[in-house]
Each structure stands twice: as structure tokens, then as C-alpha cells.
Specification:
Immunoglobulin-like, single chain, about 60% helix, alpha+beta, about 425 residues, four-stranded antiparallel β-sheet
Length: about 425
């Protein structure tokens, strides 16, 4: 997913200059100032740089610019792998990765039940009419815990990564699926085409800021390792003064690397907020662009719709019945989201002249039980539904809305068919 969330506004040069070239220049200058005195040929290098600064050696200046551009190009191509290393993907199955991930999983297994406990405790206090500051304090604690879970930890334990940065990024990668049933990997490349240029630029700016922090941290880490190698190989004999001469330099770069990493977490959260907002604001534009002219009217219906679209785009050869592009008179949503149901609608003339009987059959073709089924049926213009005529062949049914007509049934087991019937009559009758 990280690979997909790259520059989308077309401001390629700006992203490279601010996110990659600046870190290269910054760390190069720091390295020359701090590490130069202990480097082999350090005095000669510093003298060469002075000549470049005064303009006495133009060819050396050209060579220096060339080296900086080469380093920038290398780092540009390593940007995604470097971020993935910081997220913890390449080493998540190592001993160290499992150790760090285990700590994060403990936090997850404590935070989720605690959030639920606070929620139920607050509800019980309100039911008992216990007021005062206690329910408010519980609400504040619950909100803080919910914010932590939704920004610092993924929604499922198996998605937890060894690093804090990795979990922050994975949180917003999972957002579109949790909120709307949209597979981000499948739909993000298509959503990008509908994002306004101004908003796309905002997304790129936050991503560039993250790149600056991560690349600076990576380069400082490399410099720290270089100081360690130079110190061990060249600064002999190993006396306290000799070791201190290079050790403090290594510690400075290591501290800078950690500091830039800590700053990168806040930048990742800002980037994630923009990516989340892109799904919030432009998903219906994407729905229209894909050719679907049936905007969902409920949250459950929207989630079911996006799940089916994601599956249809991911598995082009799927034999599942495709989603119709135009509005259907009857819409069906169910919980849990994704359970496969088949509907058939039949309209018959009723015994009383002018009235029309509608029968809708719902068959559960899934291996799971449909806990709640919501049927929305459009009543033709000039007609109205007789609420008392709504019937179901098994279980119970309730009418939650008349325009459009929305009926809610109970559980429908695997392989079971349930029929709903109702009568409509002319509004003037």
C-alpha cells in the first residue's frame, strides 16, 4: 500500500527537492563538519571544499554537484524500501521483530477490552441516572483511548507491525476498509483520478514532509555507522581519549537519527489524515466514474456495495452476479457485511381493484447466517404502502421507513428462503 501512496499531484520536482535532496545536503554538511576531522584524508577533503566555496576549483564543484545528484537519485529509488524498513516489514518475522510486535500486541489486547469496559460502564452509569463528573471523565478517557487505538494500532492483532511508524501507517491504510468496505489497494489508483489538484497537492506536501524526516533519519543512521567503522579501524590504540574522540560523534548522529524518526511519526499521522479525507470526500465521485448510478442510502448498504465492487475489480473473472449500474427498485443489505443473499421480486394485481401486491423472496446463499436483513423498496409515484399489510413468511419484520419503504427482518439461516409481502394502493384512494 505504501508504494501506491506516492506523489499524486504531479509536483515531482518539489517532492524530490524537499523530501530527498534537502536531507542529502543537510546530512552531508553535518557529516563534513562533525566527521571530517577523524576521516582519512579529512584535511585534504576540507581544503578541497574551501577551494570549491571560493570558486578556485570549478571542476571539483561540478564533481561535488554530480555526487550529490547521484546520492539523491539513489535515495529516491530507495525511498519506499527505506520506509518499509522503518515500518518493520522486512524484519517483522525476525527475533527482534517478534519481540517488538509482541509488545505492541500486549498494548492492543489491553486497550481494546478497556475501551469496551469504559463504554459499558458509562452507559450503566447513565441508565442509573448517576450524573456528576464521573460519566464525563469516563467519556474523556474513552475518547482518548479510542483515538489512540484508531491512530496508533491496526484494527486486528495480525496486522500489528514491530514499529510505531509502521502501525501508524497501517492504521490509515485500513481506514477505507473499516469505514466503507473499500479495498484501498484496489481502489486508491482509481480514486486518485477524481481528487482535485489542490487537495492532491496537500496530500503530497504531507508525504514529502514524512520523506524528509525518514530520509534524514536514515542518512544520520548511516553516518553514525560510518563513524563507528572509522573509529574502530583508524583510531588506535584504544584509549579513553581516543575512543571518546569518535564516540561522541557517533552518539550525535545516532541521537539525530532517533529524533528524526520520532518526528516522522507525527508527519505520518498528518499524511494519514489527508489520505482518509480523500476517501471521505471523493468516494462517491469514484462511484459515478465507475458507472454506478445507485448511490447508497444507508451506511450498511454503502459498505456492502464497496465490498462487492472491490471484489469485482480484484477478481475480474469472478462468477458472482455483477452489480447493476442503474437503480434497482429493491435494495438489499445485511449483517454481517458481505453475506451473499439473492432476491426475487414479483408484482401481482390484488383482489381489490387498484391495489397491487408485491412479494420479495430473499434466499441466503452463504454459509453464514444473516443476522439482520434490510430491504429497501421504491414505491412508484402515485402509490402508498399499506403498513398493516407488511408480512414475512418466517420470523418477524418491522417497517423502519415509508419513503423509501424500508423493512427489517430477523435472522435468515444458510440455504433458507424468506418471503416478504406488502400491498400498495393509489394515493388518491
Amino acid at each position: 500500500m505504501t508504494t501506491l501512496l506516492t506523489s499524486i499531484s504531479g509536483q515531482f520536482g518539489k517532492s524530490v527537492i524537499l523530501g530527498i535532496l534537502f536531507p542529502v545536503l543537510l546530512v552531508s554538511i553535518l557529516t563534513e563538519l562533525i566527521v571530517g576531522p577523524i576521516m582519512p584524508f579529512g584535511a585534504a577533503i576540507q581544503n578541497q571544499l574551501k577551494q570549491i566555496a571560493t570558486g578556485d576549483d570549478k571542476w571539483a564543484a561540478v564533481a561535488l554537484v554530480f555526487v550529490v545528484l547521484v546520492l539523491t537519485g539513489i535515495l529516491y529509488n530507495l525511498n519506499i524500501p527505506v520506509i518499509r524498513v522503518y515500518e518493520g516489514y522486512p524484519w517483522k518475522d525476525s527475533y527482534l521483530g517478534n519481540l517488538f510486535a509482541r509488545s505492541k500486541k500486549k498494548q492492543f489486547n489491553k486497550a481494546v477490552p478497556l475501551r469496551l469496559a469504559l463504554r459499558y460502564l458509562r452507559r450503566d452509569l447513565l441508565k442509573l441516572s448517576i450524573g456528576g463528573d464521573l460519566p464525563k471523565s469516563l467519556q474523556l478517557e474513552q475518547n482518548a483511548l479510542a483515538l489512540y487505538i484508531n491512530t496508533e494500532l491496526p484494527d486486528r492483532e495480525e496486522f500489528i507491525l514491530p514499529t510505531r511508524l509502521g502501525n501508524v501507517i497501517r492504521c490509515f491504510e485500513r481506514y477505507s476498509f473499516i469505514a466503507y468496505g473499500m479495498d484501498a489497494i484496489v481502489l486508491w489508483p482509481r480514486l486518485v483520478a477524481k481528487i482535485d489538484a489542490g487537495f492532491a497537492s496537500t496530500i503530497d506536501d504531507t508525504k514529502t514532509s514524512l520523506d524528509f524526516m525518514v530520509n534524514s533519519s536514515f542518512l544520520c543512521g548511516v553516518s553514525s555507522l560510518a563513524v563507528l567503522i572509522i573509529g574502530l579501524l583508524t583510531r588506535t590504540p584504544f584509549t579513553v581519549l581516543s575512543v571518546f574522540h569518535w564516540l561522541w560523534r557517533m552518539i550525535v548522529f545516532l541521537a539525530l537519527s532517533v529524533l528524526f524518526y520520532v518526528f516522522s511519526i507525527g508527519r505520518a499521522k498528518a499524511w494519514g489524515m489527508q489520505v482518509k479525507a480523500a476517501f471521505d470526500l471523493y468516494r462517491f465521485d469514484l462511484l459515478k466514474a465507475l458507472g454506478y448510478l445507485q448511490p447508497p442510502v444507508t451506511f450498511l448498504e454503502e459498505k456492502t456495495l464497496w465490498l462487492r465492487i472491490s471484489s469485482q475489480l480484484l477478481y475480474a473473472d469472478s462468477r458472482e452476479r455483477p452489480i447493476p449500474y442503474n437503480n434497482n427498485p429493491t435494495r438489499l443489505t445485511a449483517s454481517p457485511v458481505g453475506v451473499q443473499l439473492e432476491i426475487k421480486r414479483q408484482v401481482n394485481a390484488a383482489a381489490i381493484s387498484g391495489n397491487v401486491a408485491v412479494e420479495i423472496s430473499v434466499k441466503n446463499k452463504d454459509t453464514r447466517t444473516a443476522d439482520v436483513v434490510v430491504l429497501s423498496d421504491n414505491i412508484p409515484d402515485g402509490f402508498k404502502c399499506l403498513v398493516n399489510s407488511v408480512r414475512v413468511s418466517a420470523g418477524v419484520v418491522s417497517v423502519s421507513s415509508l419513503v423509501p419503504l424500508e423493512m427489517v427482518t430477523g435472522m435468515i439461516g444458510p440455504g433458507t428462503t424468506v418471503s416478504l409481502t406488502y400491498v400498495i394502493k393509489p394515493s388518491s384512494a
